[in-house]
Amino acid sequence: MDRAETQAPPEALTVVPLRHYGLWVGTAITLVILGLILKALATNPAFDWPTVGKYLFHPSIIRGLGQTLLLTITIMVLAIIIGTIVAIMRLSPSRVLNAFASAYIWFFRGAPALIQLIFWFNLSLIVREFSLTLPFVGTLFTIKTNDVMTPFVAAVIALSLHEAGYMAEIVRAGINSVASGQTEAAGSLGMNHRLILRRITLPQAMRFIVPPTGNETINLLKTTSLVTIIAVNDLLYAAQSIYARTFETIPLLIVVAFWYLFVVTILSIGQHYIEQYYGRSDQQQGASLGETLRRAFRFGRVAQPA
């Protein structure tokens, strides 16, 4: 008998779905743990939810939140500027610039942020004062280090230099992700190095730079909580000042966690849309090299080769 004649028709077959026993067990355990956590949050009096609501919009907490946001924005802007410069130096053919950039990244990424904070806050132990002296003119001005190196300034300098070490590697990796043929083609058309970097390299590198930069911004927001050690009046410091008097430690820490999670959520949403903006070329299956160069010539002044 032919084999085709012995096979049952498809409608006569019984389809047995694959059973995922491990998935069911994992889901059940997760639901049990989640239920226990929710029960503890709802019934444990130590959380003191009325006190959480009382301090959620307390003026001191809001001022501390504003200081935290100001620190994050200021430090991140400076870190991006410094990191970009260091990344370009790192890619420079000059051995001196390359070595300096490598040493900068090695040191400021390697030294813990807390140690750098404490060091800059105590800079007056090394440098007592800053002065400007010109030959045949004398000293123009002198200012004590403690008058300049306030807790806020020390926090901005320390964390900016620290974060710039990470941003330098992010920018360098983004620039290296652009095919070398892009810059070679642009150079053959008479574009100088600065214009190639601004019109060809960086725009294409942004889709590789933006995602890790967004993650670094979120990480920096949380890292700013370290500045409480040098008495910067940030969000955590404001909460500590309150619970040091009222002994309502847990509710105040919940308030701090709530505001950090709220800001991180907003930043994550913004990062998502920025990634979509810079990744739109992937959605359009990418622009050709000729189209990229035509756009560069359209928006930039390029000296046409003779």
Automatic annotation (TrEMBL):
Assigned keywords, A-Z: Amino-acid transport, Cell membrane, Membrane, Transmembrane, Transmembrane helix, Transport
Superkingdom: Bacteria
Alphabetical list of Pfam families matching this protein: BPD_transp_1
Source organism of the structure: Aminobacter aganoensis
InterPro entries: AA_ABC_transptr_permease_3TM, ArtM/GltK/GlnP/TcyL/YhdX-like, MetI-like, MetI-like_sf
Any GO MF annotation of the entry: transmembrane transporter activity
The keyword Nucleotide-binding is assigned to this record: no
Annotated family: Belongs to the binding-protein-dependent transport system permease family. HisMQ subfamily.
GO cellular component: ATP-binding cassette (ABC) transporter complex
Protein name: Glutamate/aspartate import permease protein GltK
ABC transmembrane type-1 domain boundaries: 65-268
UniProt entry tagged with the keyword tRNA-binding: no
Membrane-spanning intervals of the chain: 23-47, 68-91, 103-123, 250-270
Subunit structure as annotated in this protein's UniProt entry: The complex is composed of two ATP-binding proteins (GltL), two transmembrane proteins (GltJ and GltK) and a solute-binding protein (GltI).
